[in-house]
Amino acid sequence: MAGTRPEGNLARTYQGKPGLPRGRNGLPLRAVQASHRERLQASVIAAVAEASYHAVTVADIVRGARVSRSVFYAHYADKEDCFLTATREGGRLMSSRMASATRAVSPGAPEEQALRAAFLAYLRFLADEPAFARAVYVDSPTAGPRAAEQLDAATRRMADLNRKWHARARTRHPEWPSVPGDAYLALSGASAELIRSIVRAEQTEALPSLEETLMSLHMAVLADRPWTA
After folding, report:
1. What's the whole-model pTM score?
2. How many alpha carbons lie under 13 Å from residue 225 in its C-beta half-sphere?
3. One domain for residues 63 and 100
4. Where are the alpha helices (DSSP H) in the chain?
5. What is the pLDDT of residues 127-141, one digit of tens each?
């Protein structure tokens, strides 16, 4: 099911590899259940990235995960439930990567360094996880109302992070403009569309090159700074 190009850690499949031992294998139940969920979530990301959400079946997912259908239904109600859980968990890992990057910035550094660090961590995460990026930015918008709602919530969370960063930055830069709440959402949506266009063109590895564009866009709106050539 997986293609020949690396798809990232969030899209591992287990075809051709042994499944978990059957029967009394000595593994703690929680460890077995966690392994099942990890396998299924990675398999659904890989399958959707290759064949599209609507083409993928539960049979495809369990085949890639090397587990049974009964195991699948012990964890997820249906394909949609598995897909939403997998993309949500991937999003949490991405947010954690961004938070770690911003915490690593010196407290005395210029405010834009924290923003740049967050953007670069965001873009590098997606570049390292091309199957996840495709599942989220290409398939989620058409995977049904719940997937679209989850994607919209992620866009709003990104907007809220921008709003909080801007509020902190303006305590040191009162000359920076105050902007309406919709401006943060517009910036978040514009960033997502730029990323989507690159992912759709199967050039996900080039995403880190968007760093300067995203920085210039945000600083132009939030700091009234001329666009960087």
Report:
1. 0.89
2. 13
3. no
4. 29-51, 58-65, 69-75, 79-103, 111-128, 130-134, 145-172, 181-200, 211-222
5. 999 999 999 999 999
